[in-house]
Give the backbone structure.
Amino acid sequence: MTDVEDTVPPLGAGTDGAAPGDVTVEYAGEYVTIPTGTRFTIGREGDLALDDNRFLHRHFLQIEEAGGLWWLVNIGARMAATVTDAEGRVQAQLAPGARLPIVFGVTTVVFSAGPTTYELSVHTAQPAFRETRPDALIDGESTIGAVPMTPSQKVLIVALAEPVLRRDGTGMSELPTSAAAAQRLGWSLTRFNRKLDNVCDKLDRQGVPGLRGGVAASATNRRVRLVEYAVASRLITRDDLPLLDDPALRGDADGVAAGPAAGKDHE
């Protein structure tokens, strides 16, 4: 088997002779620029020394230039890092020995060492990734295939995805339970679950997998799949977070308390 490392060109050897430009690492409000042709290490020691945390590798992550791209490399032995783009559309686990190209304008890196969680971002002057957005229809009609959601259905999804939307790199393990999301909205759990069923049924009819199943289907997996789809497809974005505090969408607006009794809701 060919070793992955053997397929990567030497440091600074671009495929077309062009340098990818400098990158900048931001941590705790401090910015450090990495010139082309250099390596940059992150850990308990190194070019970016985070803190004297004995759970943290002395040298954990490395940023280097190869093949006309910047790469993030996990040079640690035990820890992994979560890598995402700024919009949360792409998320990857960087295991020990693995490497990822840094292709976004802003790449967020989150990892934990013992009880401490660290978050840093890498800013690229010349990102290889270019976002493309579909042109809006001039007649104002919805795009074919788009899934319309009522305001209360949309705020339900936002409540489940709130940790992901508020913080780059947040894993799906940090999603709230249905009870916690219902409490966040001031809804009864019965109302929340009924609306969650409606949302999942609507998306299932549009061909989104993993939202329906038999009696053995996991409720946790359904919530995770819903959030993954909603964030990746931009059904919800950070701009929707204010919906969580909109009085018109909260339980007390239509007489539905957060207690065990569910109110009438026909949406």
Remarks:
- The radius of gyration is 22 Å.
- The helical segments are 151-166, 178-185, 189-205, 219-232.
